[in-house]
């Protein structure tokens, strides 16, 4: 059977949907599996042995009918037996309809039956600590496999690239043998970014816990001013423990650098999912407008802990105003004690 899985969205979504390849590989013999994603997500699926071929394009290259028809022309030569559309937007659903494979599966929407042969109604509540992010994806293969085991996303890294990341740390006089912590200092957008003064206080708290903690920051060069605004609010003692001029040149290097860290702490987002996929402990601060039950994947209260403003206030908060870091310092201290011991 020849299968195409489509997930044209953010990096975390592409990584999460990649569990389908392992699940299918474990349960179906003689399958050839292809993945269609946006190019910015390649780093989280490269070297994945369960994916036979990756198709990719920039987001702007898959817009409107012109983009859909371009990829229809490419994919019609492949003769896929099954297409699973995990993105489930009109653009990808239209592509599936034009390709007209023997079987096609996507999530149920009021119009989905016009485009695919099988529509899946998403679960409302998670059954396991895999959360809805994983469980919804696994629902997509129930029509061909039935209910499967739970699968965790995994990023596959090579020894040479891990060694290169280690060498880059050394070149910046960063001792990877110390307690390195990757800080997810900014969210993917302003509404998903913990307030600057609160983040600065959190960094002060971390360094006060142990002045041997060495902090790396997850950001890209064009965010340097935003990062500097946060660091300006930190105590001088804290700033001495932050390698603010070190940043990864690309996403794959960031993943390898994070693998040399003891933990990732900070804003919820793609970096959190990446850390979990390389088995690095995470302490995650959720944005008020993101539901924990959707994305606190494999939270266990030990290696993976998250906090949300709704954990502390009965009323549904729409912003971070009341979500001061002192509310969860006890949890953060517990997390550090468990995962950052020398």
From TrEMBL:
Q: What is the protein's species of origin?
A: Psychroflexus torquis (strain ATCC 700755 / CIP 106069 / ACAM 623)
Q: Work out whether the entry's keyword set contains Signal.
A: no
Cite the source lineage: Bacteria, Pseudomonadati, Bacteroidota, Flavobacteriia, Flavobacteriales
Q: Which InterPro entries match?
A: Glyco_trans_9, LPS_LOS_Heptosyltrfase
Instruction: Tell me which UniProt keywords the record has, alphabetically.
Output: Glycosyltransferase, Transferase
Supply the name of the protein: ADP-heptose:LPS heptosyltransferase II
Q: Name one GO molecular function term.
A: ADP-heptose-lipopolysaccharide heptosyltransferase activity
Q: Which domain of life is it from?
A: Bacteria
A single cellular component GO annotation = cytosol
Pfam families per record: Glyco_transf_9
A GO BP term here is: lipopolysaccharide core region biosynthetic process
């Amino acid at each position: 059977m020849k299968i195409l899985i489509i997930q044209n969205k953010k990096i975390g979504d592409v990584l999460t949907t990649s569990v389908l390849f392992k699940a299918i590989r474990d349960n179906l013999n003689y399958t050839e599996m292809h993945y269609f994603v946006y190019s910015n997500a390649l780093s989280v699926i490269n070297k994945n042995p369960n994916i036979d071929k990756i198709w990719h394009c920039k987001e702007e290259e898959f817009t409107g009918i012109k983009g859909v028809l371009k990829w229809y022309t490419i994919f019609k030569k492949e003769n896929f037996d099954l297409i699973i559309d995990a993105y489930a937007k009109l653009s990808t659903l239209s592509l599936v309809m034009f390709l007209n494979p023997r079987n096609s599966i996507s999530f149920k929407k009021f119009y989905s039956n016009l485009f695919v042969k099988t529509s899946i109604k998403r679960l409302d509540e998670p059954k396991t600590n895999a959360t809805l992010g994983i469980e919804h994806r696994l629902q997509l293969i129930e029509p061909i496999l039935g209910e499967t085991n739970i699968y965790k996303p995994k990023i596959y890294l090579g020894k040479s690239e891990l060694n290169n990341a280690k060498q880059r740390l050394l070149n910046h006089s960063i001792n990877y043998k110390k307690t390195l912590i990757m800080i997810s200092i900014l969210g993917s957008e302003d509404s998903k970014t913990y307030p600057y003064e609160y983040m600065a206080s959190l960094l002060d708290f971390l360094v006060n816990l142990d002045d041997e903690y060495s902090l790396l920051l997850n950001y890209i060069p064009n965010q340097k001013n935003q990062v500097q605004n946060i660091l300006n609010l930190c105590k001088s003692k804290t700033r001495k423990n932050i390698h603010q001029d070190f940043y990864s040149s690309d996403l794959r290097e960031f993943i390898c650098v994070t693998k040399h860290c003891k933990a990732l702490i900070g804003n919820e987002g793609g970096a959190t999912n990446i850390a979990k996929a390389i088995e690095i402990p995470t302490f995650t601060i959720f944005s008020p407008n993101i539901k924990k039950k959707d994305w606190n994947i494999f939270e266990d209260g030990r290696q993976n802990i998250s906090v949300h403003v709704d954990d502390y206030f009965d009323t549904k908060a729409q912003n971070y105003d009341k979500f001061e870091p002192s509310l969860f310092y006890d949890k953060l201290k517990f997390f550090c004690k468990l995962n950052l011991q020398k």
